[in-house]
Amino acid sequence: MTGQHPDPIPPAKPVIGEAEIEAAVRVLRSGRVVQGPEVAAFEEEFSELVAGRHCVAVNSGTSALHLALLALGVGPGDEVVVPSFSFAASANAVRLVGAEPVFVDIEPGSFCVDPDAVAAAITPRTVAIMPVHLYGHPAAMDRLVPIAERHGLAIVEDAAQAHGAALNGVPVGSFGAAGCFSFYPTKNMHALEGGMITTGDPELARTLRLLRNQGMEQRYANEIVGANMRLTDVAAAIGRVQLGQLPEWTEQRRSNAKFLDSRITGMVTPPVADAARHVYHQYTVRVTGDRDAAQRHLQERGVGNAVYYPTPIHRLKPYLDEDGKPGPWDLPETERASREVVSLPIHPSLTQAQLERIAEAANTVAGAR
Description:
This protein has 369 residues and is α/β, with parallel strands linked by helices. The chain folds into two domains: 18-241, Type I PLP-dependent aspartate aminotransferase-like (Major domain) (Aspartate Aminotransferase, domain 2, 3-Layer(aba) Sandwich), CATH 3.40.640; 246-368, Alpha-Beta Complex (Aspartate Aminotransferase, domain 1). It has helices at residues 18-30, 37-46, 61-71, 89-96, 115-121, 141-151, 202-212, 233-263, 291-300, 332-340, 352-363, 365-368, and strands at 54-58, 79-83, 100-104, 126-129, 154-158, 166-167, 170-171, 178-182, 195-199, 276-277, 283-286, 341-344. The radius of gyration is 21 Å and the shape is globular.
């Protein structure tokens, strides 16, 4: 079977409905379009998702990571422990403040950073740990927080893919000194574009508000050197609508995952750690044979799919050494995941018939190979 399927299932399907459109138009008509009442309301409402922490809205998830590190004083000469199996933004933010990412391996089940690897990577220059709650699964914060406390390190959570995820009932974004979320259109909720920084420290929150707005709270009363990383009120209004739908969408994602778990036998389905609440930004399986052939097989059957991430960060050009090599990193689980992972559709718009088609296509991959 070759060629384009007549009814393809997209790997992701961002929602932009009438409510989002009406919210955007309402703000445009108000004339208050940047850093106004919608942003303040969005911050207050998002706080309920992160155990009441202070929330500071910014223009992207990458800006959230960047400003969090800046506000914590991370800079030249410092090291930040980061998993290499993530989107480049995780390490880019470290480099943007002049610090160096120290890459560590992941746990094979959750695809999140391995706490033992983190502990082994700490040096006198280490100032922070950046766990990534990858694919919507929380990192092992119950083990990472004690490591950070023992060494006096800050934790900056990269929760860009994990809105509403939790471990032992504690939501991601509320474990560390700061948590960073993204509202890019493919995320579990979006604001067209945007980000949010969460923190339990009111002084850190104030510093973040200064940094996002040219270093000032009052116009022309600049207190520090800052940037322009503000969120628009149009984006915040859309984000508020999406936030209201997030619980329902999350339960649909989890229900979809439960169905696929029960039906897929031809691939390794994503395990969930004890006491973890997985919100399935991605439904990521492992293919132990020819992944390219498996992807073609899925595509021919109309099942959209994608690989996140085919190249670990430590192998990307900006992170190679002077000889163009990946450096001294020994990351076997990262390398294995980058060769084996495929993400299948899991978004809440899937129909029962589409879920059944996804499972059937996945189960016939072995025969196709």
